[in-house]
Amino acid sequence: MIPDGTYTAVVDRIEDTLATLQLEDNDDLYNLVVGEEELPEPARHADAILDVELEDDELVRVEYDEAETEARSDEAQRRFDRLSERPSRDDRENRSN
Fold first, then answer.
1. Exposure of 19 by Cβ count < 10 A (0-12 exposed, 13-18 middle, 19+ buried)?
2. pLDDT digit string (tens) for 3-57?
3. Which fold has domain 5-88?
4. pTM, full prediction
5. H-only helix segments in the chain
6. How far is the C-alpha of 22 from the C-alpha of 43, rounded, in Å?
7. Cα(41)–Cα(95) distance, integer angstroms
């Protein structure tokens, strides 16, 4: 059972008509499966960020955080871009020494 309260949730995946949410609370991580129709339409995709409130393992409030979704997506893309860059010749030479 997930404690009642307010959480930041990430849509982990949507399969068929079920959405799996990962709820973050300090050091704890919970999974909650809900019907896709319980989510705001713009949030019906993987990696969407939500502010949710739970009571007795039921969603009582769900708000899509578009700004946070975009910020996390942009940061992930920047990390990917940095990792995919080919090292410069100087970097390669320094590693071999």
1. buried
2. 999 999 999 999 999 999 999 888 889 999 999 999 999 999 999 999 999 999 8
3. OB fold (Dihydrolipoamide Acetyltransferase, E2P) (2.40.50)
4. 0.76
5. 66-84, 89-96
6. 14
7. 49
